[in-house]
Amino acid sequence: MSLVVDLNRCQGFAQCAFLVPDVFALHGDEALLFSPRFDEAQRDRVEQAAAACPVQAILVDFSDGPTKGAEPHVG
Ligand code: SF4
Question: Which residue of 2, 29, 47, 62 is 20 to 30 Å from 39, comparing CA positions?
């Protein structure tokens, strides 16, 4: 599972860092640091953080590894 934060949208409100401090951290007043990979155990809280972000800057991919069935068809 992985996530990306759109730092062009992020306003540094820190809701995410408050909800999942293991994954998100605010550095100084503005710079958000985040861990792009997270565990199943953090899934619920990451989901809450994405929902709580006032500018919807957190994009989460709950899939594990490459999508099955996405292999190209040959022939
Ligand atoms: S909650 Fe959203 S706006 Fe606030 S720091 Fe996290 S990603 Fe940025």
Answer: 29
